[in-house]
Amino acid sequence: MAITLNHTIVHAKDPEATAAFLTEILGLAPPRQLGHFTVVQVGDTSLDLIRGDEPISPRHFAFLVSEDEFDDIFDRLRQRGLTYWADPFHKEPNQINHWDDGRGLYFDDPNGHRLEIITRPYGSGGLEAKHPNPLLSR
């Protein structure tokens, strides 16, 4: 049996609202309740949202999407008037990146978690790409 990531726990101020945000923006199935968790299914892995009263440390979640899914998600972000960035440091607002000759962007969820959608895995274009991933060294 291959090892896969089954789930990860994500702290949220309002798990139900966060789950609704994620499923609507990403175009996923509606969330489900599992005990005290609000569960968002992303492929074989779930994000198990739990209410937290303490300050939330922002985490990063990257979603590999198709070109068509990227277009749909991008449209939903713009329809809501949400800010997005081409970079994880929020220095390039309202732009997308073309790393690995794909497309990518970052946006925040209601808890400050940084979400990313990409159409190509990091480094998949190699150094031969027209727009190599900046993480690759030359």
From TrEMBL:
Chain ranges of the VOC domain: 4-120
Pfam families: Glyoxalase
Top-level taxon: Bacteria
Entries under InterPro entries matching the protein: Glyas_Bleomycin-R_OHBP_Dase, Glyas_Fos-R_dOase_dom, VOC_core
Name of this protein: VOC family protein
Protein species of origin: Litchfieldella rifensis
